[in-house]
Structure formats: C-alpha cells, structure tokens
Amino acid sequence: MKLENLFKPKSMAVVGISKKNPLSPGRIIFVKNVFEMEVEVYGIHPEGGEIEGVNLYTRLDELPEIPNLLVIAISAEDTLDYVQVCADLNIPACIIIGGGFAEIGSEGIKRQKKLERVANDNDIAVLGPNCIGVYSPPLLDTIFMPTERLTRPSKGTVALISQSGGVLVDQFFHKFNEIKIGVSTAVSIGNRAVVDETMLLEYFSKYDKETSNIAFYLEGFKSNKSKKFLELARESKDTVIIYFGGLSEQGIKATKSHTASLSGNDKIISAALKQNLIVQPRSELELLTYLKLFDVLSHKRKLFDSNTIIYGRIAILSISGGHGVLCVDLLKKYGLFGVEFTEKEKKEMKELVNPVARNIASFDNPIDLTGSARDEDIENIIHYLSKIERIECIIVLILPYTPSISFQIGRRIANRVSIDKKPLICFIPYIQKYGMIIEALELSNIPVFHSIEEAVQAVSALRILTRRYNFKQRK
Amino acid sequence: MKLENLFKPKSMAVVGISKKNPLSPGRIIFVKNVFEMEVEVYGIHPEGGEIEGVNLYTRLDELPEIPNLLVIAISAEDTLDYVQVCADLNIPACIIIGGGFAEIGSEGIKRQKKLERVANDNDIAVLGPNCIGVYSPPLLDTIFMPTERLTRPSKGTVALISQSGGVLVDQFFHKFNEIKIGVSTAVSIGNRAVVDETMLLEYFSKYDKETSNIAFYLEGFKSNKSKKFLELARESKDTVIIYFGGLSEQGIKATKSHTASLSGNDKIISAALKQNLIVQPRSELELLTYLKLFDVLSHKRKLFDSNTIIYGRIAILSISGGHGVLCVDLLKKYGLFGVEFTEKEKKEMKELVNPVARNIASFDNPIDLTGSARDEDIENIIHYLSKIERIECIIVLILPYTPSISFQIGRRIANRVSIDKKPLICFIPYIQKYGMIIEALELSNIPVFHSIEEAVQAVSALRILTRRYNFKQRK
Lengths: 475, 475
Prior knowledge:
Strand content of chain A: 15-25%
CATH class of the largest domain in chain A: Alpha Beta
Oligomer: homodimer
Largest interface: A-B, 78 and 78 residues
Helix content of chain A: 40-55%
CATH architecture of the largest domain in chain A: 3-Layer(aba) Sandwich
Strand order of the largest sheet of chain A: 3-4-2-1-5-6-7
Number of strands of chain A: 20
CATH superfamily of the largest domain in chain A: Succinyl-CoA synthetase domains
C-alpha cells in the first residue's frame, strides 16, 4: 500500500460537493484546494456544471486523467460505492471524511469491515473514515474547515498524526503557530480503518525526507499493532513523541464512544513507550516544549551538540533574582540539578562583570547579575561557564527590560554559543517588542522559551535526546 | 504609619537624577512620572538646572510644597541622609530603589538597621531598599525601567506585592497583559526593611476600595510577622494568593543571597496557608488561572453564583472528541469529576440537537456534539445541563473552526448563562480572529481560557471560592 499518494498526489478528485450549501465539507475541501493549494484538483457532481466559477465533472471516469487520490465527503451509505469505483479505476488512495462507521456501533462496524475488505483486497490506501484528512503544504489540504477559520503552522520538520481532528487543529496547529514550530505533513486518522498510526510511522520515518520528528495524538494503539509500532519507533531515525489522551478511568470510557478505540493501562503504556525510546509528554505544555526543542535542533546548522546532557547538571544565569529562584525550584521536578560553584569560580566570575553589578550580584547558582548587568557581562559569564566541564547546559533567563541590556543581546549570546559550543537554553518573554532579541537567537537555532518552566522542560528534552543517542550508539 | 502616601501621594520628589546618564534609575523615574503619569513631581539635583526640558530644584526644602513621597535613587551610603531629611521635613513616605543593604551582608545589614530605626522613630513609610517601587495607575510609576521596555497591565482588581522586581514585571505584568488581568496597585517590596507584606496586606484589604484580590510573590515571610499575616489573610474580605519561590532545597539557598530572607519549610507553609484561606498556586499557569478567574468574578455584574461548587461535579460539553477526552483526563488531577448522565438524560439531549449531529454525537460525559454542531445545539444543551441540579459547573470547549459555529456563539452562551445562572467556564483558543467570540463572553464576565488545563484549573479555583465563602458564613 503506497501511502505517498495520500500526501504527494499529482492530482486529486473530490466527491460530495454541495451546490446549495457552501459550508458542506466536500465543497469547502474542493474550493480550498482549487484556490489555495498546488495540487491539480477535479470536482465531481452528478449534474456537472460549475461551482464558484470552477467546472465540475459528472463522473470519475470522465476526468482527463486518473487521479492519485479521491476525497470522499458524502454519506456513509454511499461511501463504499465510491471506494469500489477507486478499485475499478485503479485510484490508489482515498480519504473518507464522513462519520457513520465503527464509532456509531453495530451497523457502522459492519460497514467499516466491508470498507476494510475492499481497501485491502484492492490495495487502496484509505484514510479515515471520520477524519479531517491531510494537510501537506504546499500541495494539498483536506481539512474541511475554511482556512481562515483556523491557523496553520509553517513548513517544518514535525510530522503530525492525530486520532482527533480537534486536537490536530488546536493543540498542534494553533499552538505551533504561537511558538513557531513547523510541520512537514499533518494527518488526521479518524477511525483508522485501513491506514493506521503504525503504517504512518513507517512511512514518515523511512520515506519522508522532510520529517525529522513524528508526533502523535493517540487514545490507544490499534489492536494487534502496538508491537510493530514500538519496534518501528525504536528503530526510527526520527524522534517519536506520543501525547496520549484517555488514559484516566473516565477518559477510557470517553474514548470508546468517540473513536471506537481501546485505551490501554496508563502505567503499562508508559513503560513500553520509554523502553522503545518514545517520548511521552505529560501535559500540553510539555508536548509543545519538546516539539519546539526537537524542531529547532533538527535544523541543519547547529550551534551545540545536544547529545551531551547525561547527568542534568545545570548552571542558571539570570538578571532577576526571583527568576533564578523560580528556575532552581523547578529543576528537581525535571530530574535536573544546579551545579555548585567553587569559591575560586565565584571570585573569577565576579571579576568579569561591571563594577556596579559586581557589588550587588550573586555568584551562587543561580547567578543573579541584577538589573545592573550589561550585554558584555552576560556574554562574559556565558563564556566562563562554557569552560567548566561539569556544567552540561546553561539556562539563561533574560528580561530585556533593564536599560543596560541592549537589543543586541540575542545576537551576542548566539555568537558566543557558536564559538563555545556549550548547550544553552534561553528564557525571554514572547513579547512583540522583544522580537529582535528572540529572532537573533532563533535564527541561530538557539531554543527560546516563553516561561521559566518551559526552559527547564527543554533541558529535560535535551537529556532525552542524549539518552536516545547513547542507546543508538551502543547498538 | 500611613501607607497611602506611597500609592496616592498628591506630590512626590525624586533624588538621584543623573545629568550624564539618561539610563540612571533616578532619571528614568523622574522623567517617566513627569511625562507619563498624573502625580505632581519635583526633581532634585544639587546643581539645579534642567533635564529634558524640565526644571530641577537644588534642595527638598526649596520645593513649592512638602511632597508626600520621596523617591531615593542614589548610592546606599547617601541614602540614609535623605531619609533623615524626610524626618526633618515631615515627608511621610519614601521609596528606596538602590541596593547595598541587608542583601550584601554585614556592612549592609548594619546600614539597614539604621534605616529601620530612623523610619520607625519618625513614622516614615519606607518601601525597599533594593526594590523597583510602586506602580499605581494612573498616578505614579517608580519602576526604573523605561515604560516602553516592558508591558504594563490595565486597571483592575488585583493588588500585587512582590519580593522580586523581575517577577513583578514578568510573571505578573507581562502575563497579565497577555490574558487580560487588571491591576489596582503593584508594589515591589525589595528588602522590606520597614514596609512589609503584612502591612501591605492590611492596607489593601482594609483601606483600598479598588482591590478585591491580593497576590503576593514571596520567598518567605518576614520573621516574627507570619502570624499576623495569616490572621489578616483569614479575616480579609479579599482573596489572598501567594506564589512562593525558594521552597526547594536549592531554592532556599538561592533566596538567602538574593533577598536576605529566610524561606520556610514547604509543607508547613502550605498547611498554614490553607488553614488561613490563602490560595497557593503550584505553578505559574495555576497562578495566572486563579488570578484571571478571581479578577473576572470580582466585577460587579455577575452571571452566576461562584459559591456553589462543593463536590466538584462537572459536565463537559465539547465539539471535538479529543478535547473532551483531554478534559476528562485532567479532572482527577484537580480533585474534580464528571457526572454520569442517565439514559433518559442522554436521550433527551439527543433530541435537542440537529439531525446531522445527533447521529454522530456522543452524549456521555464528556458530551461531543462533533463538528456538525450549530450555535443553537450548544445553547440548547447548556440550557438542559443547567437544569440538572447535581451538575455544579459546565466546562464548554469551543473550537470556532467548524463552519456551522457562528461568531455569535460567545454572545449566545453568555445570554444563556445570564438566564440559567449555572456556573460555566469556557475554553476558546486565544487567537485574534476568535476575538469576537471571546469578547462577547468576557464582556459578560464569563471566564474564558486558552487551554483545556486552564479551564479545569478555573473550576478548581471556583471551588476554592466556595470553600472560602462557606468558611466565612459559618463564623
């Protein structure tokens, strides 16, 4: 089964275009691909004619070419007929948007079984049913919400696979946009009657060059396929992340009605994931922090080696005492700890900062250079800390509100890291006017976070990368 | 000691204005109050002359009036002389910006003791030293960072008292602006040599009519004063929240060098706070959620009674299955649980929604109306749930991305709640284009949150309000 046709079709056709209802899913999908995307797209309507100025064809076998992909957005009853047409015309892939299958109980389960049979017998890559399909920029987008109703992320290294369309759009698309994480391809798998998470994991990790990180929202593995999934994840060149929903007692009950899937036991799942190098964030914040870090560090140009965080030994550099305190408070929660400085080191650092700051700064860990710190003080201390071998990572907490910090500070930190190569994570409030600082860091692929907790989580994510790397090396 | 002079002075004077360095704290404070704030402000410089076009006076006793407040932004050595001038001229309040006191060790401790003596003997309300002072809009702002370097929150019901200037500006000001929490007055207490958190708690809860919620960032109580603080908090008409830093082992060490304060034991502090009705958020996210909820519900016009959440029995209404699952997963973490619906209730709810949604929706808790839901379906189900007495609160998860949800949905929910009076918390992604929906809800004081977890935290905050209310009633 060639999944590529779902994501990189030369051409696609859409059935289920309503002439009366401009908000019907099929019509939105057709019109959005015609006007917004690059794929060659054909609309099918039994009466032909046109819609919003675009010609329609009456039948699939009338098209100027056999499309590689058919999007079916019609009632459950009629859907199977169209899958049969795919079989007859050798259309190798289709996306089924509508519900009315396994998720509605006995009648739907029968229907879904029949669908599976036709698809498997004819080697058709069927995505769905009960899904929002595929977003594969700049080629195609079968999400049946008008583009202007949601926000889509930019192109990047993360492949997304979600069992919930809502989670795909909100926890991933919206939040990705907010914190600038890029997506290679996004897939809503719905009831995953044929194409499932395991097939997609294999496809993205083996065949998709744009992807370096594969993130899932799942409410349980497809039955009998978890073993294969775990194996693939362990072997994958890409980082694999699963955000699990429905692991609580009430959640398990809820997932049954919503995606016709079986959730597993929380602890068993977590242990299996860890053993197979799969990252399992425990909250939405952690999910996004991990993905942001993985995405940034997947870019080709790298300022530091992310595979060196073994013990979690951290130095914290701040210009606000309170921020240092809040940061050090959080280390333990993430299995990290602050190194202790020797008296000699403290004395040497003191010599490196300007006379005003020197007398009020504190050189314990967290280091607090106070509001009197200047750009060069921060740069000098980073340089000093970089030479201390037992420090594995520096967390820099920058509040660019004091007048003596200039808007060059981001660039200066990035250049310093580029020479010293010490892993470094920045906290800077994501405020528009600090954009110049944030951009300088991000252009150099230094990870920047919006809260102290995210910065700490990011170090913990770095350690996950190290463990993964070491595991792979040992083999 | 009259603290009012610190926040509502008729006039104030500033010493420590540098003619050479436009970024010196005293100069920034002077110039910002002249050009940006409403207070009558006088600048003192031994040579007189002018700065940025504004006349300066050479001495405090030459001013046209005795100011109510003196801001001292000079070296530690000279600071005491000016406090003595306050005593001589009967200036009842001063703010000491500079460091060089207890936080730097023995010499500074001596200096601070002397300062305390002069202040107490002469009944001068001294704020600081080592602080960023006061933001009391629209009257005065002694934060020595240029206004355009940070973001200030709008006027509201939360009084802020912080032991760290950085935390005040970042965790409070920046984040408040992001999620629209308003501030009555903000105070940075620094070393709290004279004016401390206990005096401020008393002032804001007894004498400040604009304040309904009092939020602290503390790294420990001032010694010998915690008992008084706890008593005041228990008796306070206002909600009292403390975000504690420096409770971890490494944090305790860090706070010593930074604010010369003693942190307490984590568990003892938490128990004491709870006993005295003080809310203690455990993360920045929780802090902000609590304050947002408290601020919204402090407004006069209230759509529902927030004192009715006793057991934490929740109904979840969603149009995305995944969101419902993630929400129900989170309930337990916050001591809440989803009610079970009877078969009769499920059937009745099913009758209330449009035929397309009806056949694919799920009426267990969480209710998933699916992407086929329309405004009136959501409204009807809220109305239905409102009549079920055992439901204490409804969490509504709205993704306004489906075409059948209109931009009126916020207004319709608000109007419904206004009639039915059932406590209701909304989740809607904070995306600019959803502003019309969010604004309709917020104008009616329905709390809206940006993530599912915050919505769940908000219900837990509602329950805190109920407990507080019941405790006060029993007395």
